[in-house]
Design a protein that fits this description.
The chain is α+β, with helices and mostly antiparallel strands. About 40% of the residues lie in helices and about 20% in strands. The chain has two domains: about 260 residues, no CATH class; about 160 residues, 3-Layer(aba) Sandwich (Protein Transport Mog1p, Chain A).
């Protein structure tokens, strides 16, 4: 077992692409995830609308590196700008993303991107990477090979469906998928340059004062400009193709979508708490980015840090701003002469520093777990804090990840009796973090 763990550690530290799962398990995991996803998604089942969309998907998938997979294509009737590609062949494109497309070729670009992720087996590769960080002993014990993988993943807190962590890809995986996508487009006789114009449209949605980042940005992290490798490949492939155009079938498809009513939302009690991250905070020197909910306020606290919280989530105190609902984040200097600290050592040093500033902080015994933060190993530490304004308690998550000679950290806070409500948004914010 020790040899297996050493091998796992070697693969992780050397950035190698690994996958502990078989192609058969890709299909099983993807099928189970799609089944769970469809319980909460409203799908367009009218073939008079979806038929053209299916034809484009099938045309592209025939040229994939895994054409034998049973790809299936679904439209999600939602304004959200997003797409999902489950291992094994399930492609779910949200209506909000489809309506960005201006022609057949941009629609093909959307589908080709998800097909490329599936054919490259990025989903189970991400799941393998998470298992390395979260459960190396389970890997050594052969978890991926067991028939009870779903039960075991559940015990580790790894969900399936639309919230599956393996649907959040790394930048390297995005580059690989983009490269394969433009080749798929060329093989299927679509204009590869439409891939570039589509990404430009998505990028424009996150610029300006009122920028709102679609979930596609968090699940599919892209560079500000199209990667040189992709631009060169488009140029190489584009010499013999027609320019992108909107066919009569495409226009009819978009018209049908526009006429389709959105599902009526379930009646719910009014609640001002957010349910998704939709805006982006960017470090002044672009060291990192993270998503946060619309309506939350950003307060800069240092050259590298800030507080993001609802309007009633920050209160003045003798020691500065007291955050009762929200998150603080910054870079913590961990430089030590002649040696470098491990993540655990650096995290413990930060905890000592935080407790010196607030002696009511109490670390919960055994509540320190490993997790992924921007595709690298991180730690989440659970702390109980006595509220300054009352006798009640607050739950604090301290999330840390090494960043060059510093420790990137986030401190999430919410009252103990409200933490379960805020926890999903905190988890989304953690998943959205991208460090350069």
């Amino acid at each position: 077992m020790a040899k297996v763990l050493l091998g796992v550690l070697f693969l992780l530290t050397n950035g190698r692409s690994i996958n502990f799962f078989s192609l058969k398990q890709d299909v099983e995991i993807g099928s189970e995830s799609a089944k769970e996803a469809e319980q909460s998604l409203s799908l367009v089942r009218d073939l008079n609308i979806a038929g053209y969309f299916l034809t484009i998907g099938q045309r592209l998938s025939q040229n994939s590196t895994l054409p034998a997979l049973r790809y299936h294509f679904r439209i999600v009737n939602s304004r959200e700008v997003n797409s999902l590609g489950f291992p094994g062949g399930g492609v779910y494109i949200y209506r909000g993303l489809l309506q960005i497309a201006s022609n057949d070729d941009e629609l093909a670009a959307i589908l080709a991107h998800e097909i490329a992720h599936i054919a490259s087996r990025h989903g189970t590769a991400q799941l393998s990477r998470q298992l390395i960080v979260q459960a190396p002993i389970a890997i050594a014990a052969g978890l991926p090979a067991t028939e009870a993988w779903k039960e075991q993943l559940g015990k580790l807190g790894i969900s399936l469906g639309i919230d599956a962590p393996f649907l959040r890809y790394s930048r390297d995986q995005e580059l690989e998928a983009n490269l394969l996508a433009v080749r798929l487009m060329a093989d299927a006789r679509f204009d590869p340059d439409a891939f570039r114009t589509l990404l430009e449209k998505v990028s424009e949605m996150q610029t300006g004062e009122a920028a709102r980042a679609p979930n596609f940005v968090f699940d599919h992290p892209q560079s500000e400009t199209i990667a040189p490798e992709i631009a060169e490949e488009i140029e190489r492939l584009n010499t013999s193709f027609r320019h992108a155009r909107a066919s009569g079938e495409f226009r009819a498809f978009q018209t049908s979508l526009e006429r389709l009513p959105y599902p009526i939302p379930k009646t719910a009690v009014a609640d001002t708490r957010p349910d998704s991250v939709s805006k982006i905070f960017t470090h002044p020197q672009d060291f990192y980015r993270l998503g946060y909910p619309d309506g939350w306020q950003v307060t800069r606290t240092s050259p590298n840090g800030a507080i993001i919280a609802p309007t009633d989530g920050v209160h003045p105190s003798r020691n500065g701003d007291d955050v009762t609902h929200g998150v603080m984040f910054d870079l913590f200097d961990i430089a030590v002469p002649d040696r470098s600290l491990t993540l655990e050592q650096a995290t413990n040093r930060l905890i000592v520093f935080l407790r010196q500033r607030n002696q009511s902080l109490r670390v919960v015994p055994g509540a320190q777990t490993q997790m992924l933060v921007s595709d690298e190993s991180g730690i989440r530490t659970v702390i109980i804090k006595k509220a300054n304004s009352s006798n009640s308690s607050e739950v604090v998550w301290v999330v840390t990840r090494l960043y060059y000679q510093s420790l990137f950290y986030m401190v999430f806070v919410a009252p103990e009796d409200e933490f379960a409500t805020y926890q999903p948004i905190f988890e989304q914010m953690i998943r959205s973090v991208r460090l350069r």
